[in-house]
Automatic annotation (TrEMBL):
InterPro entries: ABC-2_transporter_component, ABC2_TM, ABC2_TM_bact-type. It comes from candidate division CSSED10-310 bacterium. This is ABC transporter permease. PROSITE patterns: ABC_TM2. It is a multi-pass membrane protein. The chain crosses the membrane at residues 21-40, 181-204, 225-252, 264-284, 291-313, 319-341, 353-371.
């Protein structure tokens, strides 16, 4: 324990003497979380709207106003024929085109069911789908009073009109803001980057500056050396997690429905796994440049794409879904979003924690075996 304590003390001294590491540990997480919170969003606002009004009645103008009075659309193009909408949509100047046919107002007043055409730029499937959903919501709100008038007319004639009323309720994120969904996941992404980057360069740095040979000839054991590299970064991870959680709560106003102690305790499984990965990478590399490239291309990118951070795992092919079970970030995203948004506790999240611990043990054993080969 004395040797382990001295090694941990040495690691903290190295961190204190390297101001760049201090910036990575404290400043970089805040910047990354702010970027994720403000840039990594699927909310779509101020969509360019092109309109072709062939009816030009009070009712058609009211429909156009319903679109422009919302926060979703901005009227940028007004044309006389539907064909004139093709060019601005093809150029990307218009995200959604609205074509109002002739006799639109007359059909509304006669309690008929007029149709309008909505043209969506499908080159961006995500924005196009959201824009189509927004347009349906605007048209639904616009047509509500006319539908009520139709029901009243039918009641006068002693004719009943069956109606189904749907009450929608979104749990855990009532306003359906993507920021509320992305920022808790950003906590895991920031911790992943810090933990793996720092530990991946830990042993490599010793090798580059020539102190690895000195460590090898000391009585310290292999597992003590690896553990001495991991423990300081666990403490660094706790500090970094505290910083990003404070930013998430007080800057982005993300609700924390669960207990903060649950989040910290379950995070140790993620720390253990990611730090083990970093140590394993450091045993495979000879330079810090190699460690950074392997971390970026073989760890960070697959983890982001396959963890459910951006793309739903349910939409992936079955083979890829099986691979995602080996991604520790997948389980931590469930923990972070569960504690923040759902108020989940240990009982609901213990299986994710257990899987991360199991993965961490396997990775740490592999790193230990690999490091022994290097010592020989």
């Amino acid at each position: 324990m004395y040797r382990l304590f001295r090694l941990i003390q040495k690691e903290f001294l190295q961190l204190r003497r390297d101001p760049r590491m201090f910036a990575i540990m404290l400043i970089a997480p805040v910047i990354q979380l702010i970027i994720i919170g403000y840039a990594a969003t699927t909310d779509v606002n101020d969509l360019e709207l092109g309109v072709c009004d062939l009816d030009r009645t009070e009712q058609s103008r009211t429909l156009i106003t319903a679109f422009t009075s919302s926060d979703y659309f901005i009227l940028t193009t007004f044309v006389d024929t539907p064909a004139e909408l093709d060019y601005p949509i093809a150029r990307g100047d218009v995200a959604l085109g609205l074509v109002i046919p002739k006799n639109f107002g007359r059909d509304l007043l006669l309690t008929r069911s007029p149709q309008v055409q909505v043209l969506v730029d499908g080159s961006d499937a995500t924005s196009g789908t959201i824009a189509l959903g927004y347009s349906k919501a605007v048209i639904r709100l616009f047509s509500r009073p006319f539908m009520q008038q139709m029901r009243n007319n039918l009641r006068i004639r002693n004719i009943s009109l069956p109606a189904v009323q749907v009450e929608n309720r979104a749990w855990f994120n009532p306003e359906l803001k993507s920021r509320v969904y992305m920022v808790p996941a950003g906590v895991g992404l920031v911790l992943l980057l810090i933990m793996i980057m720092l530990t991946a360069m830990a042993l490599v740095k010793e090798r580059e500056i020539g102190t690895m040979e000195q460590l090898i000839v000391t009585p310290i054991r292999g597992w003590e050396l690896l553990l001495g590299k991991i423990i300081p970064f666990i403490l660094v991870g706790i500090v970094a997690e505290t910083v990003v959680v404070v930013v998430a709560i007080f800057v982005f106003h993300i609700p924390l429905h669960g207990h903060i102690s649950t989040l910290y305790f379950l995070s140790f499984g993620f720390f253990f796994t990611t730090l083990g990965l970093g140590i394993l990478i450091s045993t495979l590399c000879k330079t810090q440049q190699q460690a950074m490239l392997i971390t970026a291309f073989f760890i960070m990118l697959p983890f982001v794409y396959l963890s459910g951070f951006v793309f739903p795992i349910e939409n992936m092919p079955e083979l890829i879904q099986l691979i995602t079970y080996l991604i520790p970030l997948r389980y931590f995203l469930v923990i972070a979003r569960g504690v923040f948004l759902k108020g989940s506790g240990w009982f609901e999240l213990w299986d994710e924690f257990a899987i991360m611990v199991l993965l961490g043990i396997i990775i740490f054993i592999a790193a230990l075996l690999r490091f022994k080969k290097k010592l020989d």
